[in-house]
């Protein structure tokens, strides 16, 4: 992620707003590059695609995948859909909250090292409970497996336990 690009929204949009690309495709490209879609990109996107700022903002805010601020160094996305729920994801969620000191879907504040998000289906129904940790999918996650995954993730991003 290069935060300096957030200060140059026109160049960022120009790089990704190629003819024939949809708004969602462009938003994904921006988020893939920066890790989030900066608010400053809304106006240049609207201009480039001949949309209103409200239309662009509406798409960004409607889809839970899009971020408008940088993510925490460690992001846990836990599947809370029915198959995972039937296999113990709610007990796992309680363990994760207790172990991290964070709450699901509360966002993160400056300085927070872990962010917890609920998602509704990671496509691992037969291998539930499932979660994504910094974009990597993990299945059949037990509390012990989560603890090991979290410790490894914190080590990779040099976040204290």
Automatic annotation (TrEMBL):
Protein's name in the database: NAD(P)H-dependent oxidoreductase subunit E
Pfam families: 2Fe-2S_thioredx (PF01257)
GO molecular function term, any single one: oxidoreductase activity
Organism from which the protein derives: Paraburkholderia sprentiae WSM5005
Binding site for [2Fe-2S] cluster: 79, 84, 121, 125
InterPro entries xref list: NADP_DH_HndA-like, NuoE-like, NuoE_N, Thioredoxin-like_sf
Family: Belongs to the complex I 24 kDa subunit family.
SUPFAM superfamilies from the UniProt entry: Thioredoxin-like
PANTHER family to which the protein is assigned, alphabetical: BIFURCATING [FEFE] HYDROGENASE GAMMA SUBUNIT, NADH-QUINONE OXIDOREDUCTASE, E SUBUNIT
């Amino acid at each position: 992620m290069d935060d300096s690009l957030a200060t140059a929204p026109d160049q960022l949009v120009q790089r990704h707003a190629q003819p024939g690309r949809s708004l969602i495709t462009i938003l994904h490209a921006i988020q893939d590059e920066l890790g989030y879609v900066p608010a400053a990109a809304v106006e240049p996107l609207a201009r480039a695609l001949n949309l209103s700022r409200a239309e662009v903002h509406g798409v960004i805010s409607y889809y839970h995948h899009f971020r408008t601020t940088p993510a925490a160094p460690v992001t846990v996305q836990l599947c809370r859909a029915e198959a995972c729920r039937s296999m113990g994801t709610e007990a796992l969620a309680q363990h994760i909250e207790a172990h991290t000191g964070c709450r699901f879907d509360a966002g993160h504040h400056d300085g927070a090292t872990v962010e917890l998000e609920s998602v509704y289906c990671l496509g691992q129904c037969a291998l539930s409970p499932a979660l994504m940790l910094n974009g990597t999918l993990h299945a059949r996650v037990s509390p012990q497996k989560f603890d090991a995954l979290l410790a490894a993730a914190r080590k990779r991003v040099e976040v204290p336990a």
